[in-house]
Amino acid sequence: MSKSKEFFQHLIKPFKFNSGSDRRSGDDLQRIAQQEQKHFPFEVLVAATNNFNHHQKLGQGGFGPVYRGKLDDGREIAVKKLSHSSNQGKKEFENEARLLARVQHRNVVNLLGYCVHGQEKLLVYEYVTNESLDKLLFKSNRKSELDWKRRYEIISGVARGLLYLHEDSHNRIIHRDIKAGNILLDDKWTPKIADFGMARLFPEDQTHVNTRVAGTNGYMAPEYIRNGHLSAKADVFSFGVVVLELISGQKNSSFNIDVDAQSLSLLEWAYKLYKKGKSLDFMDTAVALSAVPEQVAMCIQIGLLCTQGDPQLRPDMRRIVILLSKRPGSLEEPTGPGVPGARHRRSRKPPGFSSTAGTTDLSDSHTTGSTFNTNTATASASTSALASPLRSDRHGKRPVQS
Q: pLDDT (tens digit, 9 = 90+) per residue, 19-65?
């Protein structure tokens, strides 16, 4: 058996197939391994990346570097190369290969194949042209490229990707690190969820699992930070944070504003404006001219529903996708957003409410130093800036462990 086959056999070995469907999925993986439909010869990747030239380097993760390449057939690829010295990276690398081999969706990054050559282990992905969402959203010189139409489509696309992972893929998958930095945008601005190094398979017959806490500050659900209580609702919380970041143009982990002698986070500020009937004041001024006020207001309310302290009150991704695909209508009233370290009181679900039941962030954690601007009640109205500077978390970003 070739080393590539042995590597793929090792990747699929940890799966325990409990149903006929799962067994068929396992057989499919065996067939893929046998036919080597996803195997790339090492020499092909060397040629595609110009011998992993540093000018081709796209970034660096805990697993190792990622290089841009081009195959002989014209396809552009991103090659993730495992660092020989990274033990944690090895686990994340193999976990990502194991999960993405079974996943295919328009809004999830596509794993094209794998390669094992001696000590070298590499994963090959489609190359995504417009990089990650955080590089556009949190850099003022590129933020204008994200008009409201694109932001709304990104929100909708990420929701569809998460729905697929939670309910429609071969196995239920909890991503655990949904954030702006893990959402890639292709040449048509289609969002693709990436970085499955910390993702977890989720048992069909369980509502939650307890696990080691890992993720990115500012995106993790409070119940998950507090006790490692992981469910699909943890991803829903992270999604809600991304929605509110997209609308405001501000980063949750570094945003802080003083209002009435209170220091408010981005989620708390959104909720305070919502309760005052001034939701549109939360909107990024960069989208003021292109925004559809009804859509903006609906997305703010969805973001607040997703980030509620009580996970049982958060909607599931199917309901979110349905809401985003329809014209704005009536939604439940959100309760207060979840705060890390705080315990929620079990809330009664409103009548008619429908609900079903991390990694080290290696991107920089500095603030842009910009101030938070507010809009008037109409998207095209003039704006005024709040003079509260953003203050970054002095600890930066780090994995949290219970």
A: 444 344 334 333 443 333 578 899 999 999 999 999 999 988 767 89
Q: Determine the Cα–Cα distance for residues 387 and 402; give it in Å rounded to an integer.
A: 37
> Does residue 27 have an active-site annotation?
no
- Spans of all domains in the chain: 3-126, 133-389
How far apart, in whole angstroms, are the C-alpha atoms of residue 167 and residue 155? 18
Q: Which amino acid is at 227?
A: N
The fold of 3-126 is: Phosphorylase Kinase; domain 1 (3.30.200)
Classify the C-alpha dihedral 307-311-315-318 as positive or negative.
positive
The domain at 133-389 falls in which architecture? Orthogonal Bundle (1.10)
Q: What is the pTM of this model?
A: 0.75
Q: Which of 27, 73, 134, 177 is catalytic?
A: 177
Virtual CA dihedral for 47, 52, 57, 62, nearest 10 degrees? Answer: 130
Per-residue confidence band for 3, with pLDDT thresholds at 50, 70 and 90: low
Q: Which of 308, 279, 274, 281 is nearest to 381 (CA)?
A: 281
